[in-house]
Amino acid sequence: MTPIIDAWSVLIVALAARLNREQSKALEYLFAENRVLKEQLKARGGRIIFTDKQRRLLAAKAKELGRAALRKLDSVVTPDTLLRWHRQLIAKKYDGSGKRSPGRPRIMKEVEALIVRMATENRWGYLRITGALANLGRIVARTTIANVLARHGIEPAPERRSTWAQFLRSHWDVLASTDFFTVEVWQPVGLVRYHVLFAMQVATRRVHIAGIVQDPYGAWMEQMARNLTDCFDGFLLKKRYLIHDRDPLFTRSFRDILTAADVKTVRLPPRSPNLNAHCERFVLSIKSECLDRMILFSEEQLRCVCTQFVAHYHGERNHQGLDNNLIDDTATVANDDGDVVCDERLGGLLKYYRRAA
């Protein structure tokens, strides 16, 4: 039995040695292949990107070998890299940033729009706006209001200047404006220039043709001022301010008569037609829609044309500045299924469509 056992022992040892030699050759080949791959990556400036699954696999295998054995291997992944991956996986396990809120939520767009509106339409401070929002059921801190206004480029209340639009709105019901426009009329002597003086109630856009004359001399302007401020039917009754430009025709005596009737004149800065935009828009309308399309031959014809256009302007022409409504809103629609009737003025130059009663 002993010779047989010895033979088996020799055979097993021989097989083990052969297997060790094959494993050694395989390891030597893998080491050489790793070195070649690392040299290729280094030459190309690249790096290997591992997935989390691959990192876990390599970390588990490396744990069985130990740190000392890993250092002997010329592996792509170093022991320090494996430890770093380990720390990252632990940190990721306990990372709660995904459930963390991004901080205090932004103010609602509706509330932000209200803050900007209140600040632009009024000279209110932060605390006043806070109170106004509380009246609407919105509780907003002073700091939040300050941040919203700063984000929209709106200064604090002491530094916020009043605009011309705000001035007009605050004096809307007691504000009127006046201006001239000229019309060329054919006469036997040739073209004659007529001056048309008109006034406008800014709040309602209602227009009044005060007078038409060739030469608006001082006495005539004084009479126009008396007519406008007549205590019975003057167009400027209950008005406190009259806006006009720096035309020399608006003489000192003209302004003095208005002041005596408790109507303060507001002279606009030089070359600022936009500050009297409502009057300028009326001049554009009457000229582009009417006067520029006609050839006039007498003062009477000019007066008739202006009268007809003003009637059309008040009761038959929609105004975008008044939400596309008529100035004289008494002409209500009688029905919605009657025949459509077209009313004409000046031979069809001005038209108005309505439902028949």
Structure, described:
The chain contains 12 helices and 7 strands. By secondary structure, it is an alpha/beta fold. It folds into 3 domains: 19-85, no CATH class; 109-161, no CATH class; 170-355, Nucleotidyltransferase, domain 5 (2-Layer Sandwich), CATH 3.30.420.10. The strands form 2 sheets. A 5-stranded mixed sheet has the order 3-2-1-4-5, with helices on both faces. Strands 6-7 form a two-stranded antiparallel ribbon. Strand 4, helix 10 (252-260) and strand 5 (264-267) form a beta-alpha-beta unit. The chain starts with a helix and ends with a strand. 14% of the residues are buried.
Per DSSP E runs of 2 or more residues, the count of β-strands stands at: 7
Question: What is the terminal-to-terminal distance?
Answer: 135 Å
- Please trace the helix and strand order, writing H or E for each element: HHHHHHHHEEEHEHEHHEE
Low-confidence stretches are none
Helical segment count: 12
Count of individual domains? 3
Large-scale geometry: elongated
Rounded to the nearest angstrom, the radius of gyration is 46 Å
In spatial order, strands of the major sheet run: 3-2-1-4-5
Q: CATH homologous superfamily name of the largest domain?
A: Ribonuclease H-like superfamily/Ribonuclease H
Strand content: 5-15%
